Amino acid sequence: MNFQGKTIALTGGASGIGLAAVEGFTALGAKVIFGDINVAAGEKAAAANKAVFVPLDVTNPDSVNKFRDRAYAEADHIDAVVNVAGWSKVEHFVNTTPDLWDKLIDLNYTGTLRVVHAFLPKLISRGEGKVVNVASDAGRAGSGGEAVYAGTKGGIIAFTKSLARETARYKLNINCVCPGPTDTPLLMSTPEKQREALIRAIPFRRFAKPAEVADAIIFFASGRASYLTGQVLSVSGGLTMQD
């Protein structure tokens, strides 16, 4: 795949899957403008990959608009918008609080809506472009201890499919990647016993590497996915095998 002359706007690019996507896109020749709430890590990633970093809090509408404006200041068009920013906390639902629900919903669901809504008018007016949302297999199959998180990711899947139907007339491609357990700082923060149980449940007996999930993101953002829209691709090592 060749991304020479292409511009990617990406959220959550300072670590984990988002960082792997930044590395993958830039290695293929893309110009990448990415945002993250972690400024120090974002600036380091930008310097290492010759990308453009913009401080971004997807829960803040003004921050999202500034990110969009900076992206269009750096490039006259955006070829793909990639939503990776997300967060979870493992806790049985009965022990959670409304404050935690609100945080999970605002970051994982509404944050993606904000970013897509900010970029969508120019994608539509151009009549060309791709949106790649990163959900989770938790949103397809459920995940114990992550009921609200799984609900937000299920919402992202439904949003992706619905938006794909609305925007097909404008020749936009809207697709979704659903990672399974992936070797990221977020996963490593979970209890060791839980990680061991996950590995036993995965047919490949290992976690995904961030770059393996990034490969699916890059595919959906490429010309090779020009006839795909409203699709959901699991990258889970066989953990979830379902329609």
Fill in the keyword field for this structure.
alpha/beta, Rossmann fold, 9 helices
Descriptive account of the structure:
48% of the residues lie in helices and 15% in strands. It is of the alpha/beta class. The protein contains nine helices and seven strands, in the order βαβαβαβαβααβαααβ. It has one domain (7-234): Rossmann fold. Helix 3 packs parallel to helix 4 (98-126).
Task: Write a short abstract of this structure.
This protein is an alpha/beta fold.
Given as residue ranges, the uncertain stretches (5+ residues, pLDDT < 50) are none
Strand and helix order: EHEHEHEHEHHEHHHE
- Strands of the biggest beta sheet: in what spatial order? 3-2-1-4-5-6-7
* Major sheet summary line: 7 strands, parallel
Average pLDDT, to the nearest integer?
93
CATH topology: Rossmann fold
What is the number of domains? 1
Instruction: Give the terminus-to-terminus CA distance.
Output: 28 Å
> If you compute it from the alpha carbons, what radius of gyration comes out, rounded to the nearest whole angstrom?
17 Å
Structural class: alpha/beta
Shape: globular
Q: Give the CATH class.
A: Alpha Beta
- Level-2 CATH architecture: 3-Layer(aba) Sandwich
- Treating each run of at least 4 consecutive H or I residues as one helix, how many helices? 9
The total count of strands amounts to 7
